[in-house]
Amino acid sequence: MSDSDQFNGRMGLIFASIGAAIGTGNIWRFPRMVGANGGGTFLVPWLFFLFVWSIPLVIAEYAMGKRSRTGTIGTFRIFAGRRFAWMGLWTAWISTAIGFYYAVVSGWTLKYFQLGISGALTGDKVDTTEVWNAFLQSPGQVIFFQFVVVLLVLGAIWKGAKAIEKVNFYLMISLFALLFLTLFLSLWMDASDGSLDGALFMFTVDFDMLFEPEVWINGLSQSAWSCSAGMGMCITYAVYMRKDEDTVLNAFTMGLANNSISIIAGLAVLSAIFAVNPDPLATVTGGSSAITFLALPEVFAQAPGGAIGPLFMMAGFFLALSFAAITSMISTVELCVRNFVDHGYDRERSVLITGVAIFLFGLPSAVMWIKLDSAGVAFPEFLEVQDHIWGYGLMFSGLFIAFSIWKYGYIKWRKQVDEGTAPDGLAGYMGLGVSAFRDDFINTGDNDLEVGRWWDVMIYLAFPILFVVLMGSYFTDMIANTENVWDPSNPKGLSIILLFWGVVAVTFMFLNKFLIARPLFRNIPEGADVDISSLPGGEDELVVALGEIVPGFEHLTVKDGVLEAEITG
Amino acid sequence: MMPTATKTSPSGAPRPSLGFLICLPLLLSLASPVAGTVAVADTAITVAPEDVWSDDYNNMIFPWAPANDRILQFKEYHTYETMKSRMLRLAEENPDIFEYHEGMNGGTNARGEEVTANAYEGWFYGHASPWMKITGDVQDGEYNPFVGDNGNYADRHDVMIVGNHHAREWMSYTVAIMQMEVIAFSYDNIGYDNDGDGLIDEDPWGDADGDGILDDDGDCLRLDDSFQDSNGDGTPCGPGDLGVDEDYSEQWITDLVNSREIYLIPMLNTDGNIYDRDVYMPGQCPGEEPWDCSAAGWRKNLRDNTVTGVTPIPDLDESVDEGCDGVDLNRNYQFEWGAPLGATGPLFPGMCYAGQNNDVYNGPVDDTDNDGDGQVNEDHVDGKDDDADGVTDEDWWGGNSEPETKFIQDMTEMNDDTGDGASEFKATITHHSFSELILYPWGHCTDCQSPDHFQLMYHGQQLADMTQYANLQSSDLYPTSGDFCDWHYGVHGSYCYTSEIGTAFHQHEDDIDHIAVRNLGTGFYIAEIADSPRERADLEMANISQQNYLQAGDKVDIPSAGDVPIDMCVSNMFPYSESNSKVEWRMVKPSRLQSDYGPREWSTTEWSSASVERVDEACTTASGNGTILRAMIPVAEVSTGELHYKATVSTLTGADLYQYPANGDYYTLQITYRAAFGSFLGAMFMFTVVGTFVWGGLAVALRIMLNPEEDAVLEAELRSEVVGEPL
Q: How large is the C-alpha radius of gyration of chain A?
């Protein structure tokens, strides 16, 4: 069927997913976490949770998206049932709300690439704080670069999967190259004082610290955020999977590639800072934007190679950073766009609406509440508050995915028990119910790899425990460290988070009935149609393949010129 | 009668006089005039005592007597007789402030006992203790028929100063006599220039200006180094040196006399003192001066322990039985009298043994039914109602059996000027010798603290600073039961101090004058605080606590490894408790909540406490010397962030806590990463592990993906490499 959209090659999905996973978290958050959590010590929990948290969730996302062939709303409508379509709306909203300010942040990285390439950061007596403050305090500049990012992203996804694939491919390849260039220069710098102490620090395990819960919680949160696991990105990209795509192998490839980049970026950043900074760890553990935009330009300016080295290093690093940010931005916008398209909206118009919305709703984050911290460094408080409110909302997207899996397994087992084909009791549930999702949607025969029982353990046991630990530690930390944490007018408090979450969740639950009243168009590539009828939302008459005409909603397909054109073409 | 002390002893060479010693450097410099002029040319002008003070002062010739009166000039010891006649003379010459007494009239005492005047007379020689009532307009005021003194005023606080509980401790009555001389000379003699330097009242007792230096006017310190230690005790410009605390205010003394009733009892144990001087010491070392004799001397009174009335053994020896007789007066007071500490006596009445503790015999057990309830000794004097009959301490086991202690007891208890039933003596001091100590209650218990412990300690420290003696709780020296101060404090709440003067029982007579001078201020200090010693201590404590300080963050040296030491300087005048003081700390680390986009945010740990330990380094407070208390803060070497810390210093009892910095504030210290950044082998190992996992796994995954044919082969490999591992 020519009206469906899919990636060209196997690598397309990989690069798109890696592009989504690799973001600023790998390049500016990871080195800070390594610095603050005992160097090599941090790598232990971080790697552990890649396999315990991130990869199992990504496998689940791929499996769901590949089967539902719709964005997040449709996926939850099909997998969790009609009453739970709002969960997909939540997932889409959180991602988009983050996208509002993430575009601004991406703009910063682009600006710093521009500053780097123009040599504005390498001259004598450049005060990086002044440069940063001047930039952040000029709304025109910030908005301009935010606008450029939105334009680039819109251009990349305008044409759908094949364009996304192509853009991600080139950007990711360039990112690897640029990061390796930076790494090379960093190691050179670090080695020139006789020791690779940055590298040593990054790979030396302190066994005392290994027993501190703090390090493990930080490792979990780094793994949970930087990999984009459970955020709906992989559901969205799985929509464009070819029929024989291997969900498990893709998940491993994506997760490992993500961590590879983190290590390279971490090594580059730490080596450079350790090379020139007398108190490197104080720098590394400083505020995040501080290390990236204040410390690194200072460090890079001392790169070897006369005028060329620092220029290369600066420009290379910030270009890589902006590529990482833009590819993540692409997945964010696509996640939103996909949901529009699923519900019968024209792609170009959806892209445009999303782009404009992201730009407009991002404006406050760009220019509002630009303040100075105690060290005299500017920071965007509104943006930070947005991050504060929506950042942990992502965890619920992951919880909803797990919920769908749990629900499917239980329903299937109950049904078979009723039919007399499955044993009742705990043993029966453990045998059939728990493995139902894995049997039916992951190990479908398209995979090179079959997933074993371990995946069930992760989703049924490890995930809920870790979810509680993560949320629990986050909230207890917040309660312990925030003044007036319950004051709803405190933008950094807990009440405002719960308030926003509550309002959004209740609104979305209310909107659920409008969502399910609309037809849902599945993007099914040729020969990839698989049965969804056993799923809680699979029997819905309004769930159809893209291009089908739904009685009563003819306008959605008829009025859609592009679709029409593709059908006829 | 024992011959009075002579200048040289038959057996020893004459000791050079102090005056000669002082002049020796001067004589030497005169002998080499050339060197002298060179020194003058090169350095500051040499300042000698005669450049500053009068000749009389330089030679310690006191203004109250002719220079050649060796006893009144404190170049020889008073005897009982000379003391008594001097007291009579002083009372005669100063009738407005002095009233001489011996013993008391008696009558019905505070316990309802009928007492006659001879109850206070020594067992052996029959003298009652001579004492002087000192107050302004002593002939006016109320007359106390029991005590027999005039000059009782309800608004004047009573002070008791007692010397010579122990017969051989000669400096103990000498200091009291000198105080009497000073009062007599100074009263209404306003503005007298004691040292003849042209200045008046420029250097009172103690560290008057609070700079930690006793020599407030700095005249001693101005002297050439060789003149600064005139008393030869090794401490330049210490107490007792010329020029230190030498010019007190006569106005202050006059005011003190006018506002206090001072009961000055220089020689409580007349029996013992006479015996020690006239019989015991000559018996031990015939023909020698007592200070040249190796015998310690006679300590107790002269109770005849073999006469009991119940023993069938007749007391054949009417003279003093040195192996048996006598009671240690300073173990004979009733508070916590007797057992178990340090005082044992005859096992049976009339039986006598010269055991080790015979010198501290506390007197006979009381076998009377003191309250007439048919029971004997059922309520020991300890401040508690032992028999729960509603009356406290009414039937004692013993104590106050001696004329001398009865005298102290009745004088204390019969001086109720205000008629409120409570003793008027809020502060008391008893002089002893020797050891250079100031002792405060308790004496009867070890590892215990009195309710006023830190206030008592505070005033003790003042006395100790004044004399440069050591201040300690009495029982920390050795436990004593039934001593003067435990009784005074325990029964009457009086702030009571024992000063252990000098370095010998029979101090060499060359040292009488400067040791007496060194200890002169203590009696005045006690008189001064007698109005409200507890409140004075509390107020001063609060002031002194201000001098303590905690090391601020920029003063802390962070070691390259190990815990971080935080120092606290505590004034030596502050009675701190090491175990109750602490440094509280918390770490402020970069927060896990830290936004990825905003400034650095901090997470703060709970306050934890670290104990402090005294270190042997001095520190300086705003006005004096201090002690360093150090807390070792267990900051991990891998920690970064801020250390917040504050200190709480407790007084000894823990009753008062002072915080540094004040008002709940704290200091901040930036902690940097101090550990090694890593080890090569460890890093190589971890790098290999991580590389194998991440890049190896990635390579395998990509290979499977791109070479579908090899799926089956690689599947197993991948399982073991990647999938199998985390499980």
A: 24
- The rounded distance, in Å, linking the Cα atoms of B407 and B503 is 29
Q: Are A357 and A369 in contact (CB under 8 A)?
A: no
CB A196 within 8 A of CB A190: yes
| A461 CB neighbour count, 10 Å cutoff | 11
Pairwise CA distance, residues B101 & A446, whole Å: 121
Listed residue (A470, A338, A514, A342) closest to A53, CA to CA: A470
- Look at strands B425-433 and B495-501 and give their pairing: parallel
Distance CA A397, CA A387 (A): 16
Instruction: Indicate if the pLDDT at residue A62 is higher than 80.
Output: yes
Among A41, A27, A366, A88, CA closest to A214: A41
Longest Cα–Cα distance of chain A, Å, equals 80
What is d(CA B335, CA B396) in angstroms, rounded to the nearest whole number?
9
Side chain identity at residue A347, one-letter code: R
Contacts of B11 (CB under 8 A, 6+ apart): B287, B288, B292
The pLDDT value recorded for residue B8 is 41
Which of A:200-219 have CB within 8 Å of B? 200-206, 208-209, 214, 217-218
**Are the beta carbons of B94 and B189 closer than 8 angstroms?**
no
Q: Answer whether A308 touches B (CB < 8 Å).
A: no
Strands B564-571 and B549-550: antiparallel
Contact between A481 and B591 using a beta-carbon 8 Å cutoff:
yes
DSSP code for B365 = B
Find the range with the poorest average confidence among A552-556, B15-19, B628-632. Answer: B15-19
Q: What percent of chain A has pLDDT over 70?
A: 95
Quote the CA–CA distance of B602 and B588 in Å, as a whole number. Answer: 6
Residue-wise pLDDT for A303-336, tens only, equals: 877 778 888 888 888 998 898 899 899 899 999 9
Q: What does the pLDDT read at residue A560?
A: 42
Cα radius of gyration rounded to whole Å, chain B: 35
Tokens of B55: 């000749």
CB distance B591–A384 less than 8 Å?
no
- Give the C-alpha separation, B44 to B32, whole Å: 18
Query: Given the structure tokens 């020296």, which residue do they identify?
Result: B477
Decide if A481 and B687 are in contact by the 8 Å CB cutoff: no
Q: Which of B448-452, B566-570, B649-653 has the lowest mean pLDDT?
A: B649-653
Closest alpha carbon to B217 in B245, B191, B242 = B245
CB B380 within 8 A of CB B112: no
Q: What is the largest CA-CA distance in chain B?
A: 131
Q: Chain B closest CA to A2's CA: distance in Å?
A: 26
Cβ atoms of residues A274 and A193 within 8 Å: no
Nearest chain B CA: its distance from A287 CA (Å): 4
Question: B659 by DSSP, 3-state: which?
Answer: strand
Pairing outcome for strands A520-522 and A543-545: parallel
CA A88/CA A107 separation, integer angstroms: 28
Distance from C-alpha of A220 to C-alpha of A202, rounded to nearest angstrom: 18
Both tokens assigned to A398: 């992951």
Strand partners for B247: B203
Residue A567 DSSP SS3: helix
Q: Residue B722: which of A40, A252, A478 has the nearest Cβ?
A: A252
- Phi, psi of B247, rounded to the nearest 5 degrees: -130, 80
CA atoms within 13 A on the CB side of A441: 28
Query: Which helix (H) or strand (E) is A339 found in, with range?
Result: helix A308-342
Q: Which two tokens stand for residue B416?
A: 């109720």
Q: What is the DSSP letter of A481?
A: H
In this structure, what token pair is assigned to residue B324?
């048996």
Contact at 8 Å (CB) between A185 and A28? no
How far apart CA B725 and CA A48 sit, in angstroms, is: 9
Reported ipTM: the value is 0.84
